[in-house]
Structure formats: C-alpha cells, structure tokens
Specification:
This protein is 29% helix and 23% strand. It is built from 12 helices and 22 strands. The chain has a 9-stranded mixed β-sheet, with helices on both faces. A 6-stranded antiparallel β-sheet has the order 8-7-10-5-6-9. The chain has a 5-stranded mixed β-sheet with strand order 11-12-22-21-15. Helix 7 packs across helix 12. The structure holds manganese (II) ion (2 copies). One manganese (II) ion binds next to helix 7.
Length: 474
Amino acid sequence: MAKDKKSDLEKLGKKLLFKKKNGWDGLKKKDFDTVMALSEDYKKFLNSSKTERESIDTIAKLAKKFGFVDIKKAKKSDKKLFINYDGVAGSLVYVKDPKKFHEGFLMNGAHIDVPRIDLKQYPLYEDEDMAYMKTHYYGGIKKYQWVTRPLALHGVIILENGKTVKVNIGEKDTDPVFTINDLLPHLAQDQYKKTPGKVIEGEQLNILVGSIPYKFKHEKNAMKLAILDFLNKEYGIVEEDFVSAELQLVPAGNARDIGFDRSFVGSHGQDDRVCSFLGMKALFDIKEKDIKKNLMMIFFDKEEIGSAGNAGADSNIVERMVNDVLQLNGNKDYNVLIKALENSKLLSSDVNAGIDPAWKSVNEPMNAAKIGYGVCLTKFTGSGGKGGSNEAHAEFVAEIRKAFNKDGVLWQTTELGKVDQGGGGTIAKYLAAYGMDVVDCGTALLSMHAPFEVASKIDIYHTYKAYLAFFKYL
Ligand code: MN
Ligand code: MN
C-alpha cells in the first residue's frame, strides 16, 4: 500500500469516531476578525453591567436601540418586547405568531447576578482610628481571593421617600477605590495553619473606607462621622438609609484581553454575563426570515444563591413573563399559558469549567470542557450520582446537536468535574418543572467565581453561534 493512502483503520476512524476540534485550527482570517470583534462588544457589555441592576439597565438601552418596546408601554401589534422585572431580572421577547403561543417559546435563560461582596445593612464602624464597612459575601467565592485588590462600590440606596440614589465609585481613574486587607506573611504563622476556607474568615471581609477625623479633631467616632458627613453631602443619605440599600463590591476596572495574542477575555462576572450577553446578541442579530417560532431571552437574578427569591428561577417568574406576553395579545386562557410553558424549549445557558492544566486531576478529560474547543453542551449537572440535576432527554439533545451541526457550531459534550469530585447546579431544573425540555449550554471558563475569570474568544464566538442556531432551527 502506498504511503499517502489512508489505511482502512484510518478510514474507519474518520467514519465512526467523534472528534473534538480546536476552534482556532484552520480558522479563516475573515472569521478571526469576527471572533475578535464579538469580544470587543462583549467587553463593553461587561464594563457597563457589573451588577444585576446595571445589566438590566444596559439590556434595556440596547433593547430600545434594536426596536424592543417595554411591555408596559407596548401595543398588541408590537412584536419585539422587553420585560423589566423590578430592575433586577427581565426578558426580551420576539412574538412571531400569537396564535401559536400554545406551542411554546424557544427560550434562552441565563443569569445576571454574579459572585461578589455585599455591604451589610448596618456597615460602618471605626477601629484603630480607621473607618471600615462590614460585608457579607454573595455566592460561592473563595474568600482569600478578594483581599488586597482594588474594589469598586456599585449599587442603589432607596430613601424612605422612595427616591433611588445610584452609587458607582471606583471605576474612573480619578475615583478612590476600597480594599480588604490581609495579614503580612511575616506574621502569618497561625494563619498558614488554617484551612483555605478560614484563611480569611467571613467577618474579616471588611473594607477600608477612611481615616480622617471630622474637622481634623481626634475624638471617638470622629472617623465614622466624617464618612457619614461625606455621604450625607454627596448622596443626601443618613446611616439608617443603608438598611434599604443594595451596595455591592466588585473588582474595580475594565475587562481586559489576556495573552500576547489576545485570545482570552479576562474579567470578573463572566459567569454568567457571557451567556447573558451572547443570548441577547443572538436575539438582536437573528434575521427576520430565520425566525420560525416565538422567541424569548430571559435574564435571571439570584442564581448564585440557589435561584431563590421572586426574581430567581426557583419562582414562577417565567410563568409571569409568559403570562404578560399572552395578556398583551388578548389571550386570557390559563390552559394556553400552561401549554406554552410545557411546550417551550429552553437552553439553560450557563458557564462550565474548562480543564486547567494546573488542576487536571479534578476532571475526567474525555468528558470535560477543553478551552478553545467550542460551546459546552451539558446533558446533566448535579453531584454525587447526578444528584439535583435536570437531565435533558436524549431526544432533545439530538435536536440540539442537529441544529448546531447545521450551522457549523463547534460544540463539545461536557461534565462539571469527574464523578464524585464535586459539582454544581444551574437554573435548568427549575424550568424543567413546567414540563419544558431543558439542556445546559454555555461557555467554558478558567478561574470560575474568581475576581478575574478567563474565557477563550473562540469559545465565546461558538457560544454565540450556538444560541443563534437554537433560535433558528429548533
Ligand atoms: Mn452561572
Ligand atoms: Mn456561578
């Protein structure tokens, strides 16, 4: 047999084997430019959307630009709708055919809350002649990652009269920032003996906010009062107003490119604003002729603390959103609402863990996400024997991969960690409770939940393509 001829085994392999592929391999210059341009837009979204409220504000602005009408002001004839749920959650809806609501929506659901550090409701105190604020972290963070770095303060204070005061300090170069201090290594002998979860304890996550006494007179409470005096002049608030505030500390500064070749995006909060942004963009970009069904992009709050509360997926928020759309179109039949939910198909769009060469042992490499190998399709999540998972039906996974393959989406099947290593959950199971088909699908990250998470630009691109293919072909 000639050397250049393929052997029978090679031929058989080509026919039968499932092959994962590196997304940069064979990429055309034109597509490379598209990949890079997409991440430029994505970074802008990250920079303007550091909290769930800011995310909804950004989405509302963009939605308006793309012709979506706030459902509160919408007419029956409006096809493109934006639903703002208390400024912390929401959805974008494309009504293709109101007569087919009972057939369900193609839904893409992501979350816009991110792991971070929240101020307590009674935060301000002074100690050792310095002013501090107490915090309570939100979501699954490694506390030791959050010390000795510049933090920005974002959020709202709602006054007793209902007026909203917006806060955003630490993002401009001229702004001050805040920080949580750590112990110097010279004196850390006892600290080193602690387990990682206790190296920095929850009640040590206090931010430094000042040290100049009121009118330069050193007295008890003079630093605390000087800070309150500043806040009163700047924002018109008194100490009691913190009680009705949502103030969040996030890493200060913008999203950045990583690497000599700029192939990664680095930023806080890519879980899950990467999927939120890409799902939104897919709905904005889809061509009219490609829309065959009623479409919906949903942005949830509170995923990082178990999808709780009235804006989290473990509530009837999606039912209320779908109902709002049905009501606008004059459909008051409860049976249609139930059928609409049951017959919907949902991509539970959330991030996955890419294999980190420094921590390979936590993964089973055949079924773990490889960075640069495309969007992750995750049939089940959970932990300890798939516990707590929505497992997508095989029929639905078949439909999904067919759609992805049709549009040349680079995808990989993924599992969060090897069996019994740990695990995690998403919004999937809460939506599956309505009877709809649900599968997890999103971008692989490195350093998930850290103050600086890493995503590959080629994976971001294929996640976008996947969301577009879902809306086009399901
Ligand atoms: Mn997530
Ligand atoms: Mn998360």
